[in-house]
Amino acid sequence: xxxxxxxxxxxxxxxxxxxxxxxxxxxxxxxxxxxxxxxxxxxxxxxxxxxxxxxxxxxxxxxxxxxxxxxxxxxxxxxxxxxxxxxxxxxxxxxxxxxxxxxxxxxxxxxxxxxxxxxxxxxxxxxxxxxxxxxxxxxxxxxxxxxxxxxxxxxxxxxxxxxxxxxxxxxxxxxxxxxxxxxxxxxxxxxxxxxxxxxxxxxxxxxxxxxxxxxxxxxxxxxxxxxxxxxxxxxxxxxxxxxxxxxxxxxxxxxxxxxxxxxxxxxxxxxxxxxxxxxxxxxxxxxxxxxxxxxxxxxxxxxxxxxxxxxxxxxxxxxxxxxxxxxxxxxxxx
Length: 334
Ligand SMILES: NC(=O)c1ccc[n+]([C@@H]2O[C@H](COP(=O)([O-])OP(=O)(O)OC[C@H]3O[C@@H](n4cnc5c(N)ncnc54)[C@H](OP(=O)(O)O)[C@@H]3O)[C@@H](O)[C@H]2O)c1
What we know:
By secondary structure, the chain is of the alpha/beta class. It has one domain: NAD(P)-binding Rossmann-like Domain (Rossmann fold, 3-Layer(aba) Sandwich). It is built from 12 helices and 14 strands. Helix 1 packs across helix 8 (about 230-240), helix 6 (about 200-205) crosses helix 9 (about 260-275) and helix 9 (about 260-275) runs parallel beside helix 12 (about 320-330). Bound molecules: NADP nicotinamide-adenine-dinucleotide phosphate. NADP nicotinamide-adenine-dinucleotide phosphate binds near residues 44, 191 and 194. The site of NADP nicotinamide-adenine-dinucleotide phosphate (NAP) has 24 residues, from helix 1, strand 4, strand 7 and strand 10.
């Protein structure tokens, strides 16, 4: 076990973190192993999955967009390519056909759409006749739009309300078409709000960060689907080992609780663990929102298909379990 300081905030305990360096370097094909994954975007989910697969002997490679992060990822033991999907580097694209698995984490951008799919022909020609047999696009439950509070499974009609959600749905279609053209079925994972170590209500409270725009929007909701990053990885790993029967899966926990309930629980956990820590009070507007809220635009997302077909048994069926495990891993809030 090793203890490390992360970005000047909470000190987390790291379990089983091996500093083996990866065996892929820029413009050099990976060694021929059965299991080779390329992660377009080594973000929060990508990094978590990368650590797990790397420890299981996979050849793992991925991308990020800036030198500082590349260095951080390299310090964690990964070999990473600098890559901007708007201006794809042909050297990196040429490597893709050597990988068996491909995880896409890059989100769509307003005014552009999916930055990578702008270059669809280029990707297709890079992948054709290659080793790729699994492609998973990480999407969002936002594609369902306004569901009047109903329980929404994967067959529920998509009806994205805002521009970003529309672009998200277009990205799903684009990546799906690409995989079909290459001769295999894609996976589309519609994720709820992602949280985990270093990205949770506990971290927001400790860092005293202002709410992001997405968090402010979610403040108005009665139901907010969320999922712990470890459970996303469980679901991904279930499909990697055994191709699933369908293409689209909702990946959410069992309890789409309102945001202020999650923050109240986080506050209690923090105050219990570090009595006397000076935390900002919950925003007063939360109270009036609770009173005036209606279910228009709301949805409860079903995870039955994920459980029944992927065999996922959630490590964190609700935010209480997830937050408890997160605070247990924080040694100091400073
Ligand atoms: N956050 C949520 O609650 C939530 C909920 C549902 C779905 N999602 C979606 O699920 C996916 C995975 O989530 P996550 O939390 O792991 O995402 P994340 O941490 O934001 O990672 C996104 C990755 O995409 C890369 N990227 C962004 N724009 C790019 C561009 N133009 N060219 C190349 N790379 C680019 C980022 O590069 P850098 O590493 O350099 O930043 C990063 O590696 C994302 O698409 C996210 O939008 C998120």
